[in-house]
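Example 3.
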Amino acid sequence: MKSDLLHDGLAVVNVGPEMFVESVRAGGAPVAHVEWRPAGDGDPRLAWLLAQLAGDPDDPESPGSRIDRANQTAVERMLAARAVLVDVALRADEVWPECWVDGKKTLTHAGAPIPWTGMCDPMKGTLIGAALHEGWAKTPEEAADRLARGEVSFIPNHDLGAVGPMSGTISPSMPVFVVRNSTGGNTAYCNFSEGIGRVLRFGAYGPEVIDRLKWIATVLAPAIKTALAALPGGVDLKAIQSQALLMGDEVHSRNAAATALFHMAIAGALAGSAFDRARARAALDFIAGNSQFFLNLSMAASKAIMDAAHGVAHSSIVTAIARNGVTTAIRVSGLGRRWFEAPSETPAGLYFPGFRQEDANADLGDSAICETAGYGGQSLAASPALVQLVGGSVAEAIAYSREMYHVTWARNPVMSLPNLEFAGAPAGIDVRKVIDTGIRPVLTTGIAHRQAGVGQIGAGIVRAPMACFTPALAALAETLGVA
Amino acid sequence: MKSDLLHDGLAVVNVGPEMFVESVRAGGAPVAHVEWRPAGDGDPRLAWLLAQLAGDPDDPESPGSRIDRANQTAVERMLAARAVLVDVALRADEVWPECWVDGKKTLTHAGAPIPWTGMCDPMKGTLIGAALHEGWAKTPEEAADRLARGEVSFIPNHDLGAVGPMSGTISPSMPVFVVRNSTGGNTAYCNFSEGIGRVLRFGAYGPEVIDRLKWIATVLAPAIKTALAALPGGVDLKAIQSQALLMGDEVHSRNAAATALFHMAIAGALAGSAFDRARARAALDFIAGNSQFFLNLSMAASKAIMDAAHGVAHSSIVTAIARNGVTTAIRVSGLGRRWFEAPSETPAGLYFPGFRQEDANADLGDSAICETAGYGGQSLAASPALVQLVGGSVAEAIAYSREMYHVTWARNPVMSLPNLEFAGAPAGIDVRKVIDTGIRPVLTTGIAHRQAGVGQIGAGIVRAPMACFTPALAALAETLGVA
């Protein structure tokens, strides 16, 4: 840009719409283009709200200054949070007995609440599989019938302090990871990774899927629980996430290093225990064979971290992004349990052979909790290797992280991005900044086939819809008496 | 550069010595500097040899064309080589009985042959420790006396198909890794990592050092041997090296990911075996606590790969770089077992608190075998995180790898460098190109204190001396009847 502007004679700076650049250039004048959008993307009501909610250094009692202080508190809690895997609960109904009290039937799912009739096919398949797994039906048809008739309640994972990838379902007999934030005192949960291929979370419900769920409950979960019993401090998941960012993971769509570090953290304890030898080997080999095993742990850690930042009055920090396969929904620290949702977009990325964009389901799963904690798309610069899976160049991956600094509150000193000369990762998405800049948070994600049970067909990148953020801003203004 | 040259009026291009640039610039003219050095750094005899040894597409029987064909063969063997950890030999004297036949006493060491009187202090300390470990003396003084009197023979590791980091010593009761190149049929060996701190390889020989050596021989080595017995295919070290390059390691001075991947490869098999539980845990925890554990395996793998490329008549590919703490020595594929050596330089890097450059020993150890195989300094672009240990910027790390393409024969398709958009790593250092460009191979390295037993005091970067390469070129010319 500099050289253009320093050229002798006429020089043009074009601000905003890029369409004028070419005609000026064609006329022979050097032209520099500056990307600019009006705040709130041109909506005068949003621009006016933004203006009123901006921090004002001269008026500490202005609404914007109150938001700033609240955000500082929220982000400090986020940065101070720990995330330690302390236990495995062998059954979900031990953790949330109220969901299954007196024969009540409940299944959890990803994203914001959604009725059976509105669900995408993969999520329906997952719930059918979970019902079969629990013995609530003998055939998929019977299960679908019972689910459609309302015999089973559905509840978002987030309402239980839990998260789950893709459809995200937890049923009463499933084991869950127990992750504690010892500085904040809060606890988060996640179900177990089933590996790849035909798996429940993508809506598959064949016998091999149910068999694997039984094996996870009876072998894998007890194995990890046994190892944890021999590790008095638990396993520090946040430390693993931080190390993995130096090792090519962004700990959302790539967890190769984090999985190896987790394996290394528990294998000695398991090998030293009295746990059955053949089962110990099977459990360790299962983790070793599944480079995304750590995703569920990264999600639970991110949930523990972000719940610490939730509930600070007037804070505009996003504490959850979750997708139910139809809508993308966000929660905001100062706005309680309310979801702000908008139709999900379909990820752009690379497809496995034989599949294409038309086969893709809309964005799905609770895993975008990772982005709220600064991982995934926010830390894409950490993961050049992910580019091979989702498409694009390493330079683009780095550019995504640079862009995310414009919508976040702080830099996380314990999350270094080597390719940005070890700058701290973007931390704390601020609803105001998203609207002000027009830059939507980037999410890395797996892509599900839109038919139940086909499974993962690719991986890519998607952005959270702007329409999640604009009503959140209005709601925030309301809490401050601004209109 | 472009903008300078396009400036109106006088523009100057300065080729070669940079000293003229400032005076031209001071005179007000734009000046572009082009780095250039005469081939052979201005030595007319070397330049003449280089000219005669350059490949000539019009004359397939020219000396240079014969070297080119030999190099192609050597590098193809290198790229085709596998490196599989197939076994642990519990005692070195099982592998090389000839070294200890009839009560003969032998100790190995890193680098080219060197007499006791010429050795650096750390290497003397290591040999004293090895003699104590073997029970050849009761006190360090007695050990030093026996070693000085010639009661023990010294032999370079490389002469046994082995390698060892820093002083590199192998004694008869020490276990060694057995690494097989199944495509070439050759086998390479390395001793075990002792972890960091006060360790034999840096010249420490206190009781805790000897105790740890006994524990390695009686617990760690049998544990890994037991795991390997339950892994019929062995552990594919080259595959681990390739994955680790995508995970922030250059598998010489940083092996955090490779160590975790190796741990993950053996832990299941060990946990599933009948090996004593407490010892299994101790062995796995030892590896988990030592992020450089894989270095010794990376070295053995690199030795297996480079021995495959060795012995191709007339090839100018460097198949070993090794340092005995006084000299740096290279071996060349077409020049047999001859070492070409020159005084070692002292690495530049970062020092642990309390130490400085003056405390550093000259470059030491067989670990530069990694660079000959394309790892370490050659693949520094893969390891932004290493910059935190050795100093410099990520951009400089990337620049080192780019530079190394100028002295290498090929790009290794199974070794991708993410930060170079997944280009294959530089493969096969060509003696001719080193002399022609004046670019010396970059080595990453640990820095030893120059006094025995103080241990590692830092880590850094060093270059192989040009004086290793120039006599090698002359020797190569001789084999082709060129003078």
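The interface with chain A takes residues 3, 243, 246-249, 256-257, 260-261, 263-265, 267-274, 277-278, 280-282, 284-285, 287-288, 384-385, 387-388, 393-395, 418-419, 421-422 of chain B (CB under 8 Å). The CA atoms of residues 311 and 331 of chain B lie 10 Å apart.
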